[in-house]
Every structure is written in structure tokens, then in C-alpha cells.
Design a protein that fits this description.
Blueprint lengths: L4 E7 L4 H23 L4 H15 L5 E8 L2 E8 L3 E9 L3 E6 L13 E5 L9 E5 L5 E5 L3 H10 L8
Parallel strand pairs: 6-8
Antiparallel strand pairs: 1-2, 2-3, 3-4, 5-7, 7-8
Helix pairs in contact: 1-2
Length: about 160
């Protein structure tokens, strides 16, 4: 049997909330430094805590999703600032009911009872594919798949992958 392997890295688009949180963290750190130096040294403890929070939180705002497809299983991982990697999901294709572009009429039957998990870029111009997994999970995964991975999935699930 022929092995199928595909890998894809999708950078997540920067969100407005990310910029707002970064600005608030920086402002809080500057205020703590100001009060720590001029008002009371007790604010230096807050400065150290905010500095540690900045150090650990700032890399989380630069995210890339990595999809790996190997013979019936899609692994999704988040890569933070191109330094650390966290496994997010491992999707086996056994209970997949449909794979189609977002907004396709083929997804109409999978409504509000399905939990939606977004691992796409968040770019409104790039239309993600929706992978609907039934069985005990009842999940809709939003993935930014390329043509190569779609073809591999069509080979594995011939009647369930649609391009519309």
C-alpha cells in the first residue's frame, strides 16, 4: 500500500485583540516601573511579575499552525514564534463525514450540535475547509488546506471530500 504524507504550515493572521493585549501589557509594565521607581518600591514586585508575564505571553501572539497528514490521520500543532511547538489535535479520518469549503451547501446538515474548532489562518480572503467529524466527537474543524493535501484526502475518502 502506498503511504501518503503531506505537511503544511499556515501563519495565523494577527488579530486586533492581540495588539490590544500587547499594548495593555506594555502600558502596565511601564506604569509599574514608574511607580516602583518614584512612589514606592513595593511596585517593583508588580514590575517583576509583569516582566515575567510579558516574557511568556508575547511569543503566544505569533502563531503558525502546522498540519501533518499521514495515512488517515491529520495532526495539528501550534508553533509559537518559531521556537516552541504544542500539539493541538490529532484527527483520525475514521468518523469523518464531510470535508468541504466553508460556506458549502454540503455542510448544511451539520449545524449547531457540532462544536467548531478553528485552526485556520483567520484571513477573510482565504476560505478554510471544514472537516466534520461525527461519532462521539461531533466537531467541525476549520483548516486551511492546500491542493496537495486535498488530493491526498480525496484519495483516502473518495465520497466525502468536496471542492465545490
Amino acid at each position: 500500500m502506498e503511504d501518503h504524507f503531506s505537511e503544511l504550515i499556515i501563519p495565523r493572521k494577527k488579530r486586533g485583540s492581540d495588539t490590544l493585549i500587547k499594548a495593555l501589557l506594555i502600558a502596565a509594565t511601564v506604569v509599574a516601573a514608574f511607580f516602583g521607581l518614584l512612589v514606592s518600591p513595593i511596585f517593583l514586585i508588580a514590575l517583576v511579575a509583569l516582566g515575567v508575564a510579558d516574557y511568556f505571553l508575547f511569543p503566544r501572539f505569533n502563531v503558525e499552525y502546522e498540519y501533518s497528514y499521514v495515512n488517515g490521520e491529520i495532526d495539528v500543532a501550534a508553533v509559537y514564534s518559531k521556537q516552541s511547538r504544542k500539539e493541538l489535535a490529532s484527527i483520525t479520518l475514521e468518523n469523518v463525514e464531510c470535508i468541504a469549503p466553508a460556506g458549502s451547501h454540503r455542510l448544511d446538515g451539520f449545524g449547531s450540535t457540532f462544536k467548531t474548532i478553528d485552526y485556520s489562518s483567520g484571513d477573510p480572503d482565504a476560505k478554510p475547509y471544514v472537516l466534520v467529524k461525527g461519532g462521539t466527537e461531533n466537531c467541525r474543524y476549520l483548516l486551511q488546506l492546500d491542493d496537495n493535501m486535498i488530493e491526498d484526502l480525496r484519495w483516502r475518502l473518495p465520497g466525502k471530500v468536496f471542492r465545490d
